[in-house]
Structures are given as structure tokens and as C-alpha cells.
TrEMBL record:
It comes from the Bacteria. This is Magnesium transporter. It holds the Pfam family MgtE. It is found in: Membrane. Keywords: Magnesium, Membrane, Transmembrane, Transmembrane helix, Transport. Residues 93-214 form the SLC41A/MgtE integral membrane domain. One of its GO terms (molecular function) is monoatomic cation transmembrane transporter activity. It comes from Klebsiella michiganensis. It is a multi-pass membrane protein. Belongs to the SLC41A transporter family. InterPro entries: SLC41_membr_dom, SLC41_membr_dom_sf. One of its GO terms (cellular component) is membrane.
Length: 224
């Protein structure tokens, strides 16, 4: 078809040419990609956009994420004594929070796209959680074994190795639950999940993942 009719409330209001449809689809995909990167969509092509305009598009979300990320340092400060008692715990912090964020981003990307296509709705939350937790359990076991191997290669003691492996399992499963619930909840309250989900989930898992890590360490090492 060379023309596609545009209908509103059963009345013909116009028509679109093939090139116009392709342009609209391209704009829609571009906007979604920009929103998933926690930035507002650009009105002009990238090379025609000024640094000032880019600053306005990016700085708002970066400031919000900066404030949200600040609680990660509060978590580290709270568990300062545990870190001083077992300094080897610090070696694995980037690995653990990075794994949680990466796992959450994978789930969010898949889920947000499925929601956009109408494949997943709020009523499917239970099914989504069961599917993602089941999948993440297999991933968690794999990552737990990888963490065990990594700690062993570094010559870390058995207690720390066990703590790291168990934390990887817990963070991966926790990430699955959070990443399944938040996009659907945001959609329900009228917030575009493509904008908030991935950066917000990564930030949330950073802090909560550290709490999980240090709580497990306190239990196994008998720290206060």
C-alpha cells in the first residue's frame, strides 16, 4: 500500500505516505533508545544539537540518579567496621554490584520491550516473576560458581569465598524480583518504564546489594 488512512473515532482525518510512516517509526524507535539511556529525547539530529541542549537533556536524570546513588556511600559508611575487620570484602564490591545491575538491566530491557508490544500486562506480574526467578536461579548458580572460582584464584580464604558466592546468588535473585516488579508498577501509575526502569533499578540494586553482602558477611564472620 502506498497510502495508509488515518482514522479518528470512525472518521477519516487524513492519510500517510509510505515514507512518512517509516519516518514516524524511526522517530519512535530513536526516542525509546534515548529514554532507556536515562536522557530526554532530542528534537534535532545529534550533530545539530548544541552542548547546552544536551546538558539540559541529560543533567536532570543524572542529578536524580546521583542523589539516589548517594545512599550507597551511606551503606559503606554504616558497615565500615565490617570492612576494617575483613578488608578482603572490599575486593569484591565492584563485582557484586556490577553483576546485580547487569542482571537487572537484561531483565528490564526484555520486559519493557514486551510491554511495548502488548505481550505483558500488569495482570501478568505473577507469571513474569516466576519466569524470571526460575531463570535467575540458574544464572545465580552459574555466577555463584564463577565467583567461587574467582575468589579461589585470588587466594582468598574459604569463608570469604563462601560469602561472595552466596551473595552473588542472593543479589541475582533479588535483582530478578525488583526488575520484574518495577517496570510493571511504573506503567500502572502512568510513568514510562523505558525512561526510569534500567537506571533506577541499577541504582537500587547497588545499595541493597551491598546491604545483602555485608549482612551475609556479618553472619558468617561473626561481625557486629
Amino acid at each position: 500500500l502506498d497510502l495508509v488512512p488515518v482514522v479518528e473515532k470512525g472518521e477519516l482525518v487524513g492519510c500517510l505516505m509510505e515514507k512518512e510512516i517509516a519516518h514516524l517509526l524511526e522517530d519512535d524507535v530513536t526516542e525509546d533508545a534515548q529514554r532507556q539511556g536515562a536522557t530526554l529525547p532530542l528534537e534535532k539530529p545529534y550533530l545539530e544539537t548544541s552542548p547546552w541542549a544536551l546538558w539540559k537533556k541529560r543533567s536532570v536524570w543524572l542529578l536524580l540518579l546521583f542523589v539516589a546513588e548517594a545512599y550507597t556511600s551511606s551503606v559503606l559508611q554504616h558497615f565500615e567496621e565490617a570492612l576494617e575487620s575483613a578488608i578482603a570484602l572490599a575486593f569484591f564490591i565492584p563485582l557484586l554490584i556490577g553483576t546485580g545491575g547487569n542482571s537487572g538491566t537484561q531483565i528490564t530491557s526484555t520486559l519493557v520491550r514486551s510491554m511495548a508490544l502488548g505481550e505483558v500486562r500488569l495482570r501478568d506480574m505473577g507469571r513474569v516473576i516466576r519466569k524470571e526467578v526460575s531463570t535467575s536461579l540458574l544464572i545465580a548458580i552459574t555466577l555463584g560458581l564463577a565467583g567461587c572460582l574467582r575468589a579461589w584464584m585470588m587466594g582468598i580464604g574459604m569463608e570469604i569465598t563462601l560469602i561472595v558466592s552466596l551473595t552473588l546468588v542472593c543479589i541475582t535473585l533479588w535483582s530478578a524480583v525488583v526488575s520484574s516488579v518495577i517496570p510493571l508498577t511504573l506503567k500502572r501509575i502512568g510513568i514510562d518504564p523505558a525512561v526510569v526502569s534500567a537506571p533506577f533499578i541499577a541504582t537500587l540494586i547497588d545499595g541493597t546489594g551491598l546491604i545483602i553482602y555485608f549482612k551475609i558477611a556479618q553472619y558468617f564472620l561473626g561481625l557486629n
